[in-house]
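Researcher: Next entry in the queue.
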Amino acid sequence: MVLALAAGAVLVVALPAQAAVTGATVSTASGPLNVRSGPATDQKVVASLNRGAAVSVVCKVRGEHVSGHVRNSSTWLRLGADRWIADAYVAWSPARNVPWCTASGKEATGAKVATAGGELNVRAAAKSSSDRRGAYPNGTAVAVECQVWGQQVDGTAGKTGVWYKIGDKRYVSAAYIKWSKGQPWLPWCGQDPPTIPRGGNAGFIKAQAPAAKASDKATGVPASVTLAQAILETGWGRGALAREDHNLFGMKCFGSPGAHAVGCRDYATFECSPTAGCFDIKATFRAYGSVADSYRDHGDLLANWSRYATAMKHADDPKRFAKEIQKAGYATDPKYADKLIGIMDQYNLYQYD
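Model: Structure for this entry, 353 residues:
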């Protein structure tokens, strides 16, 4: 339902966050649709639904991109606890607005304007100086499509550089948006869908090699070394940071995402210190639009930071390069270079330099 407001504003009335969304029907070419334990086809099959079966949907997340019978989509629908289906195989009648799931993926959550009482301006871009495209009164429900990184704003929901896209050239600052059941795991606008490792170790190397080679050509950092680092640091691409935000090298944010990343996102990590033992921490990492952007950002870091100048002098010798970046403090593991060299040798990664 759409109501016209003054100054060109549009009020989007969202469905109640906890209401099950009906009107969804399984639509396959012939056979049943697999129900999985997570929003990707590498997750366990827990059930199946016959063609034509009606389903009630709790909420949605961004998952693996699927080319389905109805549409090509990276949206996955939560039906219940550990029960997910690809929206690519779902027909809607009538079309419905499905709420986002919370970051934990357990329940639906809705977004509302939360100001001190005044209106929230809608802007043509993610900064307060861009053209005004109307305004929302306090308490208005808004349908968020995706998020972008823009001007830092300190508002009722905290200080953040995140802005929400709510339509074509229509953005509101996340600093004035509160979620009914907690923040969802929103995609970044224009970001590639999650990277799902395929084909074992050989498949991972094949998929990653073009990005590593492109970074090598642009920065001079050996592709063999960056491939080995990606393997070692992501566990062959299985880590959440690599899958969700294409961050292969654990690159952190320090106030802004930098030139190659699309935004900054908080992750809970588990780290160990020789003196303090192991502990959980929360860190803010860079989110990339693609795998290629992650490799390029990492390559620029090594190529342009003075502490790695000695390593760059030996860019034509990957083994020496690996040892030099360790000496320069890239990693605290005393065997880091040896591990990289072992991976490069085992899989002949030198062929990509």
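Model: The two ends are 56 Å apart (CA to CA).
Researcher: Noted, moving on.
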